[in-house]
UniProtKB/TrEMBL annotation:
PROSITE patterns: HTH_CROC1. CDD domains: HTH_XRE. Pfam families: HTH_3, Peptidase_M78, ScfRs. SUPFAM superfamilies: lambda repressor-like DNA-binding domains. GO terms for molecular function: DNA binding; DNA-binding transcription factor activity. Belongs to the short-chain fatty acyl-CoA assimilation regulator (ScfR) family. Keywords: DNA-binding, Transcription, Transcription regulation. This is DUF2083 domain-containing protein.
Length: 473
């Protein structure tokens, strides 16, 4: 039997664009000529098995991501992306052709979802008109909120910003802080820019974490903040000054659609820069590897919080000095997703993170305790997961404490390198069977099921009742 040729040009190009490298740089890393890589990306040459293995070894590419069937549904896909909601998402029609050829079944699924969306939008429009006639004005919009746009943009890309990270490492070296980074940054702000840092009592700043007074050149911090949170605030302020150009250049490269989205993203990049300054790449990577990624040890060594150290672990993807591709998810006690990110992008399609059986939900019943577990997806993929609660700002008397929970995870293939994998991976009977989300999970008899799966009809039977409240056929 002749082995089917694999034409995966659009997928290779997306991988390269996601890494932010040129054809010449990728060709050099793979040991091929730029012209040959160009032919592969244009689907004029098939990708060989040897090249697939080289991609997996050099750039940590999932081999299955390069498999696909050819087909054409560009016309229908063009209809979808002509909608004003998606205006500007696809810059050229050529990319639509690439997608339709690389994943025809996915295209058909997108077309079905789009038509269902249009039907629901029409019904909502009729309902809005009916309510307006009754004197109830509604403001309905299908546009993406700026915050959602920024979150989706950052969650979908590699969580490493080279220009910011390298500049922050150089800035840390210039500060020559020793073991007292906070004092060094305060001194730099005052000496170089005349900015004085002051901590104010709760009654003076009841609703603010930080306030910068441009007239008096003073940076005020709330005493509600723990020392590591105060350090992040002053580090963020310093980075907005010292790394202004690097942050601006990185922001321009993210192609956001509105001024508000850019403002929000600038703040997120400044927070990233602050963590890069508090935990310089080289020193943090070496410490993480020596400690086998024990977040508690890293907290003590760099005088940071659990959240800050875990967040930093998800950014260690510098070319030539990359490490385990961790990802994280933060939720509140109601299950609202606050943040999610991953070293190579958050694995939304493969992992999801909405399963109610995850330890991140159980963590709220054991504040401060680290819960480690091995979770298994329906397709057999396994993840090493670590969950722990996070404490918000110090609450006053009669104030409710703000508490969230963070999940730090990685593929189980890396478990031997991580201290949390000791024991957990050896106990095969403790595998936690989860799904991406209840509406997409077909595990039968799940006690934690909160919604019926959209892929199966409900199996209601007056004579038989299953363990789940949403039995399905």
């Amino acid at each position: 039997m002749v082995e089917a040729k694999i034409f995966a040009g659009p997928r290779v190009r997306r991988i390269r664009n996601g890494l932010g490298i040129t054809q010449t740089a990728m060709a050099e890393g793979l040991g091929i000529s730029p012209s040959y890589l160009n032919l592969i990306e244009r689907n004029q040459r098939p990708i060989t098995v040897q090249l697939i293995l080289k991609l997996a070894a050099v750039y940590k590419v999932d081999v299955e991501a390069l498999q696909g069937e050819s087909g054409s549904a560009a016309g229908e896909l063009r209809e979808v992306f002509s909608d004003p909601l998606l205006a500007g998402e696809i810059p050229a029609g050529e990319e639509l052709v690439d997608v339709s050829e690389a994943a025809p079944n996915v295209v058909q699924g997108m077309v079905k979802l789009y038509r269902a969306y249009k039907e629901q939008a029409a019904r909502l429009s009729d309902l809005a008109g009916f309510m307006a006639q009754a004197g109830h004005e509604t403001a309905m919009s299908t546009a993406k909120l700026p915050m959602d746009e920024v979150r989706e943009k950052l969650a979908a890309r590699t969580n490493y910003f080279a220009a910011i990270d390298e500049a922050a490492e150089q800035f840390h070296a210039r500060l020559d802080a020793g073991e007292d980074l906070a004092t060094a940054i305060r001194s730099w702000l005052k000496t170089e820019h005349g900015v004085v840092v002051r901590t104010l009592p709760i009654h003076a700043m009841p609703n603010l974490r930080r306030r910068y007074d441009r007239h008096s050149m003073r940076l005020f911090l709330s005493e509600r903040l723990y020392p590591h949170d105060q350090l992040r605030e002053i580090a963020q302020e310093a980075c907005q000054i010292a790394l202004r150009d690097e942050i601006a250049t990185t922001l321009d490269g993210l192609d956001l659609s509105s001024a508000e989205a850019r403002r929000i993203c600038r703040f997120e990049l400044a927070r990233y820069a602050a963590l890069a300054l508090m935990m310089p790449y080289g020193a943090f990577l070496a410490a993480a590897q020596r400690a086998r990624y024990d977040v508690g040890v890293l907290c003590a060594r760099f005088r940071v919080s659990f959240e800050q150290a875990a967040n930093r672990l998800c950014t260690l993807q510098r070319p030539g000095a990359a490490t385990i591709p961790f990802f994280f998810l933060e939720i509140d006690i109601a299950g609202n997703r606050i943040r999610r990110a991953g070293a190579l992008g958050y694995p939304q399609a493969r992992f999801g993170g909405a399963c109610p059986k995850l330890g991140i939900h159980a963590a709220f019943s054991a504040p401060g305790q680290i819960l480690a577990e091995c979770a298994e997806m329906p397709d057999g993929t396994q993840y090493l997961l670590v969950s722990r609660t996070l404490e918000g700002p110090i609450a006053g008397f009669e104030e409710r404490v703000r508490r969230t929970a963070l999940l730090l995870g990685c593929d189980a293939a890396h478990a031997e390198q991580v201290v949390y994998g000791d024991g957990v991976m050896r106990e095969t009977g403790r595998r936690l069977a989860i799904g991406t989300a209840c509406r997409l999970c077909e595990r039968p008899g799940c006690l934690a099921r909160a919604e019926p799966p959209v892929t199966r009809p409900l199996g209601l039977d007056e004579m038989v009742a299953g363990l789940s409240v949403f039995d399905f056929q």
